[in-house]
Amino acid sequence: MEKRSRSFYVLATFFALFLVFLYGPTLTIGILSFQGPGGGLTFPMRGVSIHWFHDLFEQQAVGDIWGSFFRSITLGLMVMVTTVIVSVMGGLAFRKRFAGSSVLFYLIITSLVIPSILISLGVGLIFSQAGLAVHWSTSGYGSQLTWTLPFGLLIMFAVFNRFDKSYEEAARDQGASAWQTIRYVVLPIIAPMLIGVALFGFTLSYDEFARTLLTAGSYNTLPLEIYGMTTNVTTPVIFALGTLTTLFSFGIIGIFLTVVLLINRRRSRHGSDAGKGMI
Predict the structure, then answer these.
(1) Domain boundaries, the chain
(2) Topology in the membrane (predicted)?
């Protein structure tokens, strides 16, 4: 019993240290963002106020915080929609073996192990050599898809590997076409997983730095803007920005989780109603 209890405390301490390491920097930024007007970038704090959050909404001497924020939101939504659509199509395609499927699978995974900065450089060079504009909505969009699509496809591969095909067979026996089977049977069943893929796509795009560095062109996304601010902003306004973007990220995650919860509740309700109808 003593050994078990000692092991428990050792593991609990290790886990607590891990949590401090994981969330300590975020909490530190959050605390420092509430400094008074005379506050700096380090401890000790000089007063407590929301001055820097108010200052964040004023015209900044350098940078384009809100422009970069809306560019990141727009880019994240573009990447999210594309990732969901292509991932579902890829998952459906890989349900059956076809010539070159193994090679294509490993080509998809390869983009995850290539250094992100090299992907950014390569995509930027391709657009430049092709005479196309290097812009966050074109080259930046393409480079971020090399990051989000492999994750989305891997999730869909796992989903369809466990998918019970008897549902589709039952729908076809009832006279449903292939498209009706996908729309009214397959997609509703995998809806929670689609929301997970969407969340992956949006969040991975929203905070992506390396793959956007050489492909964003003249207009920064939010991660690039924050990086630029670290070199010329010497007030806690940058911490206020970090705190708000963190809260925004948690808010997005909360929205997606709420949607999944509502879908599951709706399913449970319909299932119980169907059971009562049978009785």
Answers:
(1) 26-62+238-269, 65-232
(2) Multi-pass membrane protein
**Whole-structure pTM value:** 0.85
Question: What is the model's pLDDT at position 278?
Answer: 46
What is the distance between the alpha carbons of residues 43 and 117, in angstroms, rounded to a whole number?
A: 34
**Amino acid type, 240:** A
What angle is formed at CA 262 by the lines to CA 258 and CA 264, rounded to 5 degrees?
Answer: 115
Q: Are 205 and 144 in contact (CB under 8 A)?
A: yes
- Identify the sign of the CA torsion 24, 26, 31, 33: positive
For 222, the enclosing helix (H) or strand (E) is helix 222-232
Fold category of 65-232 in CATH: MetI-like fold (1.10.3720)
State the CB neighbour count (10 A cutoff) for residue 181. 18
Half-sphere exposure of 14 toward its Cβ, with a 13 Å CA cutoff? 6
Intervals of the chain under pLDDT 50: 274-275, 277-278
pLDDT of residue 59: 67
Nearest to 201 by CA among 118, 92, 88: 88
Candidates 90, 208, 194, 227; CA nearest to 143 is 208
- Give the position of tokens 């920064």: 220
